[in-house]
Task: inverse folding
């Protein structure tokens, strides 16, 4: 079963959604899943070099109490999913286009899921700046990618327009929130749904596909 996941690398709910999908897939071990990660930018207006996260959050969400409440909610949900969100470690709010380029390249060598996992962990649990080329090089190498090649590509505009176009396509298709899961290129569900919900969707897609022949 093919599953396309539209997500952003700085989206905490996308990290939670990844864990819940993994739980759902584990409940259907007889199904051969093909998972592909597709780019989306929650805020393409963030400067290429990124910006101070506190300034960004204040400008986008207002006073500190509101941000604190949002963070605590995500922390609690994250703990249930086995994620140790460490927002206090985050100093930068990166532009995510370069991290999406790394995910794109990882897909060509069969390491896409590993790259996505490493990016989420680096940003949300370690507070690393995943908009920084050196950090992205470290992550790529740790996943088994060719660090020298990745750094060379990052220093150029290789595949930048391609990834930007794909990220924009999601918006033009009507995707307004992530994560969004698209099953077999036909059936979509939006949000970090519980594993039980995703299992029901998987079963329903199998049923529909069988009925369609």
Result:
């Amino acid at each position: 079963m093919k599953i396309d996941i539209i997500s952003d690398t700085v989206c905490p709910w996308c990290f939670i959604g990844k864990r819940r999908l993994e739980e759902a897939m584990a409940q259907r071990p007889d199904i051969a899943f093909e998972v592909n990660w597709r780019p989306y930018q929650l805020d393409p207006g963030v400067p290429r070099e990124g910006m101070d996260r506190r300034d960004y959050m204040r400008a986008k969400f207002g006073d500190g109490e509101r941000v604190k409440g949002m963070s605590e909610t995500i922390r609690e949900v994250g703990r249930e999913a086995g994620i140790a969100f460490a927002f206090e470690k985050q100093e930068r709010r990166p532009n995510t286009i370069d991290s999406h380029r790394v995910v794109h390249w990882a897909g060509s060598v069969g390491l896409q899921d590993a790259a996505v996992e490493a990016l989420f962990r680096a940003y949300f649990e370690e507070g690393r700046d995943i908009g920084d080329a050196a950090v992205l090089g470290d992550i790529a190498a740790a996943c088994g990618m060719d660090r020298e090649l990745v750094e060379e590509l990052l220093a150029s505009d290789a595949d930048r327009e391609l990834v930007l176009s794909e990220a924009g396509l999601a918006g033009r298709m009507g995707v307004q929130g992530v994560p969004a899961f698209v099953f077999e290129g036909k059936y979509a569900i939006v949000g970090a749904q519980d594993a039980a919900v995703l299992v029901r969707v998987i079963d329903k897609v199998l049923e529909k596909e069988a009925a369609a022949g």
Q: What stands out?
A: Residues 2-211 form a domain with the Glutaredoxin fold (CATH 3.40.30.10). The longest strand covers residues 2-7. The chain has one domain: 2-211.
